[in-house]
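Researcher: Re-running this chain for the archive, since the previous output was lost when a drive failed. Same request as before.
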Amino acid sequence: MSEAESIMFRAGKEIMLEKLWRKFFSNPSQWWDHRFDKANVRYPDFKHKESQESLWIDGRLTPKWVEAELAALSPGTLQRSVFSWNIKLSKFVKNRQYTQALGLYQRMQTEGVLPDKLTFVRVLNACAGAADLLEGRHVHARANQSNYQEHMIVGNCLIDMYGKCGSIEDACRVFDSMQTHDTVSWSVLIRAYMRCGHGEKGLILFQQMQRENFEPDIVTFVSILNACANIEALEEGRNIHCQVIQKGYEADFFVVNCLLDMYAKSGSIEDACKVFNSMSVQNEVAWSSMIGGYLKCGQGQKALELFGVMQQEGVEPDSVTFIVVLNACASVAALEEGRRVHAEVVQRGWESEIVVDNCLIDMYVKCGSIEDACKVFNAMSRHTVISWNAMIGGYAKCGRGTSALDLFRRMQLEQARPDNVTFVAALNSCASMLSLEEGRHIHNSIMQTEYRTNLVVQNSLIDMYSKCGNMIEACRVFNSMAVHDAVCWSALIGGYVKSGEGMNALEAFRQMELECIEPDMVTFVGVLNACACIAALEEGKRVHAKVIQSGYESNIMVGNALIDMYVKCDSIDEAFTVLSRMPQHDTVSWNALIAGCVKCGQAEKALELFQQMQQNQVEADSVTFVGVLTACSSLAALDEGRCVHEQAIACGCDSDIFVANCLIDMYAKCGSIEEASNVFNGMQGRDVISWNTMIMAYAMHGLGEAALQLFAHGDVMMDKGTFVCLLTALSHAGLVDEGEYYFESICAIYCISIAVEHCSCMIDLLGRAGRLDEAENLINKMPCQPTLSVWTALLSACRVHDNLEIGERAAKQLLNLHPDNTSGYVMLSNMYAAAGKWDSKGEVEHLRTNRQAFKSQARTWIDANN
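Model: Regenerated structure tokens:
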């Protein structure tokens, strides 16, 4: 080109640019402003929205007046292009700033910027990331208006968004409305099913995808393997593994990690190991999956060992690794290991990760260190509902119900929203503390939430009211429920049993059967306890048959309840049969049978059972020793009792207050008051039973003065039984004046109502002293109806002191109360014989024969070594 032509060309271009800039300034709103988001300097500063004409401010031919005109434009005159908005949207989504992305989209709409396909893709990604279903539906409606739903990429993003927001129905609706699908469409829908907990449907969809000749890709295999992992579909997972190999994806980083995770979660640790060992690079994801696999298989210790190997290999753990390892520590209660892992969490900077903190709380709670859990909780910058639940549940678990409820109140004050797990933990705390009023407050809070109809929460309410003894409220909650399951019936039955309403418990069980709800283990235990508390043997046998039919006879808890039921129904042979059929026994099984033998008067058999229990290497507890010592007491078997005492010391059970009280009673009844006194004096803590037992021990041995001294030094609140023991001691020692003083002081000084047992002791005391008229007068003045023991005491005294007149009156009253009482006939007959009234004696014997009032054959225990 010649110089003249070049000058003309340049002049022409300047004229065109002058016109284009004039066009720009005549209507700037028709141009996109790209000045602030240009990815490349060559990209134009302004672009016409329709004609796509372009302008550059720094161009060589740009008129000089343009800069001044641009500065004079009003703010907001120029609009950024949708491209500019999309760039910013992409950055927000990439950085997981989903709220900002959605805010930017709202601004786009306000400023009238029309979204394009990429805009909808990015905004739907933001909705999915924020799990904002409502906003996602609004965006979907706008995409429909703009006819962008027909674009496959937008349709796929809609499926993905609905899946991540938990609306599988909407995801399926979008999928079905799409005219065509690609592999991505199928993959995201499979993933949506997996996320919503419908792994089985995901597998069906995967098969349908293949039938329609769509080739699965890496994303598909990742989604379907995750679905298999979630539902533990091992065989289906193995089949998909074969397809992965056929497609050549077995070396893919994501697929191989999903394979490993699938095998680990499906319980096939061997297959998981094979995949793990075949990996060319074992990253932290693979190690975490393997550690989690061992944990799932119940091998928590092995999981911790593998974590050690991972560290030796120099692989850096991530937050998921620490979560799995902390769960492993919790599973085996490895507190020290957990503390070491905690230190490493802090060292690597993961302590600010809220999920890790929640796992630390859970680990410390399950390892029994509530203080450490509290430190982690208090150090957290913010708490999720999972954090609150872990701490509240932890306090409830370790018996600190007050702390649990205090934290629940704090949670409400901090405007944290409790969920069903929170309410269940708080209600359990109320139940454990029998805090009815607090339970009612929580019930009121529940009624203001959507959890008022939650089955688990309703069951916890029934349990709380039942354990607090308010069966009316428990029934009200039960009757308000739309659906009943075995858990709520079990809670109701258990509540009736606790309240001593055995018949109502059995009636509830019958209603449960009428509703065709299958009882579970807890139900059977509750019903058998109901039969036991009212000695309903026939009903118990019917329940036993149901237990066998339901396959629960081998369950150790049900077996123990059966033994207890038969024992309390005085059917000891049936109890032995149940024990013989149980595949395994625990301490509770043996305790129930030992206690049953003692109750049925088979103390020798109880001692034999104790020996068998030891031969079977079942560890005895305090309940065992209470039963065995009671057997020794009833047999006056001192040497046996001493051996049992030694074993209690070896087991550390001698410090248990119930065992110590039984030891005092055993030594006293076996004639060794010194050893009884030694046990009493050696006790670290005593209750009123301890004092009563020792006073009664002195009474048995006629040591009234010692009993009086002990009573004077008592450091606990005395009860009705204390005075029964004291008056018995004074009676046996013949201390009448002291007896009269303390009898008068029961009500006057100690503010205890005089009971028939006190009167019986006082009559025995007066009778032994020969003051029979006073004894009879006392009976006539008694505030309550005289019982068998009262008339027996008077009649016995009359026989000793040959007072036939009062004796006849006493015998008449006794035999009117209990016509089959053998001792009454015998004492009266002997008194007539001593007085030479043979006719009267004959009449008594004749009456006794007519009434079949004869003693059963007695047995005596003889210790050959004494």
